[in-house]
Design brief:
single chain, alpha/beta, Uracil-DNA Glycosylase, subunit E, 6-stranded mixed β-sheet, two-stranded antiparallel ribbon, 8 helices, globular, binds uracil
C-alpha cells in the first residue's frame, strides 16, 4: 500500500470502529457490555479471525486479551510473529453468553448472528488487505470458507483465494487447547497449533 492508501485505511478503520460501537444489526448488543472491534496495525500482513469476544474481552473491549489470547500470544512468539504486526478480530463482535450461576458462559453464535456481523469483517478485510487470513476455529473458518470446510481435516493447509486474501490458513481455536483433558494432550495441541502458525510465518517471509 502507498502512504495515501495507508492513511485512508487508518481513517476507515477508525470510522468503522466508531460505527460498530453502536451496531444493532442483531440482538446480541442487548446483553453485551460493548462492541469488541478488531485491533492491530492497519498494514498488518496477517489477520486472525476468532469466533466472538469472551467474557474478559467483553469487559475490556479488546479482542483476545483473555486466556485464549494468551495461548495465541505464546504461539505467535514461538513462530516469530510479533503481535504488534498483526490484526486480530472476530466473526461476531458482541459477546453471546448464558448465565450459569453468577458466571457468564460462552454461547455459540448462530448463522443469523454471524451473517448480521459479516459486513464489519468484510470492511476490516477491505481496509487492512492482509496477505494471510487465519480463521481460528470452525465458526470463523466456515464463515469465511463455507459450511463444508472442516478445520480438523484442513487445518494448516495453504488455501489461495481471490475474495478474502491471497492466502487463508485455518487452524483450531486457541480455547480448544485450554479444554484439552490433561497436560500431555494440551502440550500436543499447543504444538500442532504452533505448527499451523509456522506455516503462516513462512508465508510472511
Ligand atoms: N475467543 C474468541 O474467539 N475471540 C476473542 O476475542 C476471545 C476469545
Amino acid at each position: 500500500m502507498t502512504a495515501v492508501e495507508l492513511a485512508a485505511a487508518q481513517r476507515s478503520l477508525d470510522a468503522l470502529r466508531a460505527a460498530a460501537a453502536g451496531c444493532r444489526a442483531c440482538h446480541l448488543w442487548e446483553h453485551a457490555t460493548q462492541t469488541v472491534f478488531g485491533e492491530g496495525t492497519r498494514h498488518a500482513e496477517v489477520m486472525f479471525v476468532g469466533e466472538q469476544p469472551g467474557d474478559k474481552e467483553d469487559l475490556a473491549g479488546h479482542p483476545f486479551v483473555g486466556p485464549a489470547g494468551r495461548v495465541l500470544d505464546e504461539a505467535l512468539e514461538e513462530v516469530g510473529i510479533d503481535r504488534e504486526h498483526v490484526y486480530v478480530t472476530n466473526a461476531v463482535k458482541h459477546f453471546k453468553w448464558k448465565a450459569r450461576g453468577k458466571r457468564r458462559i460462552h454461547d455459540k453464535p448462530n448463522a443469523a448472528e454471524i451473517a448480521a456481523c459479516r459486513p464489519w469483517l468484510d470492511a476490516e478485510l477491505a481496509a487492512v488487505r492482509p496477505t494471510v487470513v487465519v480463521p481460528l476455529g470452525a465458526t470463523a473458518a466456515q464463515a469465511l470458507l463455507g459450511r463444508a470446510f472442516r478445520v480438523t481435516a484442513q487445518r494448516g493447509a495453504v488455501i489461495e483465494t481471490t475474495k478474502i486474501a491471497p492466502f487463508v490458513v485455518a487452524t483450531v481455536h486457541p480455547s480448544s487447547i485450554l479444554r484439552a483433558p490433561d497436560p500431555a494432550a494440551r502440550h500436543a495441541a499447543q504444538r500442532e497449533f504452533t505448527a499451523d502458525l509456522a506455516v503462516v510465518a513462512e508465508l510472511l517471509h
